[in-house]
Amino acid sequence: MNRRLAPLLLPLLLLVGAGCTDGTADEPPPRPAAAERPSPFQDCAALSTAPPSAAGVATPTSGGQALPELTLACFTGGAPVTLPSIAGPAVINVWASWCPPCRKELPAFQRLSERAAGRLQVVGVNSRDSRSGAQSIGEDFGVRFPILVDQGEALQRELKRNAIPLTLFVDAQGRIRHVDATGALDDTRLAELVRQHLGLEVAA
């Protein structure tokens, strides 16, 4: 190459080379966001609608404590749920994935929700738990009923109860007829409590 031309061509070659990259060639492409696992639980939209057969359930007309005026998030998202808006009769179970008696009894609550469908609502309240822990329990134990989230233990504080599992039996008028904190409930005991406090016959 002619030595006189080299100084003239060098800047031109540098300019051409600079157009080959935008300075990001060495950066890895962005990773796609990990897809969130679908929730195993039902949404909470129907909780304010009374079970179709609730009208025929005979419950006492007085007594019982009203559900606390608390608003809790639904595990699946959507509008938060005010507890008094839950249409009874209902069985509300407070649980956490780290609680062995809770894990033991959750399948019985799922079976109750299936056996009493149309007559009774089964609702879970996940307390002081991680989302992943609750999700795994739903997947592993086949829990499908709606789940509310109460990480601050507001419901337990209102009821002045600090142990879980905790189960509320709520009549068609939205009043708490019984609070059970005896430990893991099985199918037979759940059926007895539903009959005794809510006037519903459910197969064990």
Question: Can you characterise this structure?
Answer:
The protein has 204 residues and is α+β, with helices and mostly antiparallel strands. The chain is built from 5 helices and 8 strands, in the order αββββαβαβαββα. The protein has helices at 6-18, 100-115, 131-141, 154-159, 187-198, and strands at 65-66, 71-74, 81-82, 90-95, 121-127, 147-150, 166-170, 175-180. It has an 8-stranded mixed β-sheet. Strand 5, helix 3 (131-141) and strand 6 form a beta-alpha-beta unit. Mean pLDDT is 84; it is low at 11-35.
In short:
This protein is an alpha+beta fold. 28% of the residues lie in helices and 18% in strands. It is globular, with a radius of gyration of 28 Å.
What attributes does this structure have?
single chain, 204 residues, alpha+beta, 8-stranded mixed sheet, 5 helices
Show the helix and strand layout.
Elements: H1 6-18, E1 65-66, E2 71-74, E3 81-82, E4 90-95, H2 100-115, E5 121-127, H3 131-141, E6 147-150, H4 154-159, E7 166-170, E8 175-180, H5 187-198
Parallel strand pairs: 4-5, 5-6
Antiparallel strand pairs: 1-8, 2-3, 2-6, 4-7, 7-8
